[in-house]
Amino acid sequence: EQGFCRGGGRFGCGDGGGGGGRVGAAELLRRLWDAWEPQLELELAAEACSSAGSSRGGACASAAAAQRQLDRRRRTLSSERVGAQLAASRGTEALALAEAKSVIVQGNTRKFRGERCFRRCKRNGACEHCGTDLCCRKGWDANESRSGGGPAESGCGGLGGEGKHVCTRVPAIDANATARESFAEALAAHLVLLPTARSFAAPVSLAHVASDLGLALNSSKRRSGGPAATESADAAPPWRGVGRAGEAFCGSTPDGRKGSRRWLSCGGLGDHHGGDLEAQGELEAAVAARAWVAGPGERPELVLTYANEAGTAWVTNLVLSLRSVGVDHSLIVTPSAAHCSALFSSPARLSCGHTSWEVPGCSRKMRNKMRTLWYLRHHYMVRLIDLGVNTLMLDGDITLHGNPYALLKAPPLARHQLLYSLDHRNFCDEVNIGFMYCQGCARRGRAQWVVNETLRRERSFCSPDANAVYGDGGTFFAATDAAGVTSPPHRPRLWASAQDQKVMSDVLASSCCGKDVYRKLIPYHYTLLDKAAFARHFYPTGRCNEMKRERGNGAGGCHYAPLLLYNSSDGAPPPPETMATVPWRVLSSWHGTGDGERAGWSGSWLS
User: Fold this and answer.
1) Which of 80, 123, 201, 332 is the residue whose CA sits 20 to 30 A from 598?
2) Sign (positive or negative) of CA dihedral 334, 337, 339, 342
3) Among 277, 389, 381, which residue's Cα sits nearest to residue 333?
4) Total Cβ atoms within 10 A of residue 446
5) ∠446-549-450 over CA atoms, to 5°?
6) Residues 38-91: pLDDT tens digits?
7) Edge to edge, what strands does the sheet with 134-136 contain?
8) Are strands 301-306 and 390-394 parallel, antiparallel or unpaired?
């Protein structure tokens, strides 16, 4: 299936059970909740104890002690998680080598012996497409010698197909079991650890084995002259650089859609271990190192994600799955420098920067690490729009099975600026912001207003002055209290699941309807007396936030709506911009119960 799955493991997502390290979706979700629920209860208790007028008795003292213990645990969690990730990486590498040897190298030897190979291998000699056979053509060595090579260079020794290159059994390799086994292992290591072009310059281990066999393996550099012109092949894929960031984890084949190769960056970028992204010039340096420009006149593209220590496994899975489909223009933002260093020093060399940013103006009792983690993505989305960067913002619990740009850059999605995945119905406020893509968003434009307004609302909810606005006697409930629609007491809502998603959903509805909307999240508690009047006051009646259907090829259509609101103090109205939701061909959700969704449970999850 094209696109992503929410919550999947390295190789898929779904409810597949069974052994071999796999676990069913229901069991995995139960484990996640069992780990999360005690922490949630502890944080709620600690926040309640820190609020005004709360008792400082034994229960609060116990909660404070438990919170201190949790903080100590978190300080050690980074090294433990990364240590486990390193061990898993080594195990995965060994498994990948064994699979490459048995499935690809030895399998290709059996499957393609005697078959044509020049289109895959480009010229005489060793090529993983032929396994432990060589790609040979009779008489080709003589032509090679005229351009600087010779029979010893390819190892074919005059063997091969008549008038064509075929995968050829070479006795010097096939009759020597020890050499053949070493050759297969070296090919597998080259295939897994250093994938470059299909006809390749070998690493030291493979060159050593080849030397023992009397071979000198091919360079991937094409030579002129001889019969090469009669068996032309496409040049090596342009995204396959040498010695670049993450190259050892790059996928071996591109997406087949027309034009999709332009967006494949794996092996074409340097890695980046950044500093504090709030320091002057740090974000710009990260963009310079990690953003991908597909061609002249194109905006830089960046995939941004975020994680704390507890999210190490998920965010590593996300980046590795990105690389597996050829995309490596990614950057991870972490709240701590130590965690970023651990991610970068892992075998996967995960590019990252840390941040000292917090939601500005939050009162002490409303300040917590989860709020910072949620909202830092919006903060950096605003800054990246200012820098003119197209930013794909992904939650760590996403895994990719195909290159997304083939669909995002095709009609109709290419015509829209602010793209989200759909959570339920086709309404502006029914999105899931775990997938958010801003393409061609104007500085100080309508899309940027959505992100800025999301941050402004959260600042107003958590500021020390919030009670004057949302509390008893404040302006927010003044009209509805006076009209008998609501009644006090109005106390702060200390916790709401997916709070930033609910805030942004309300902001999107506001922009689609051209008026302030508060439906998903009312920041303070209230007593509801008249439901219909409450709805008329706080969120739109009618269908002004319903999106329209747009048909098209590529992603198979989408739903969209114009964005109406912007900051009028910035001067002239900004250019028109729209929001749209991507269909299930791009993203499968957790549940797949809404209109236009497909369930994200097919396949198997990994523990």
Assistant:
1) 332
2) positive
3) 277
4) 24
5) 20
6) 666 666 666 666 554 445 567 777 777 777 776 666 656 555 655 665 566 566
7) 125-126, 134-136, 166-168
8) parallel
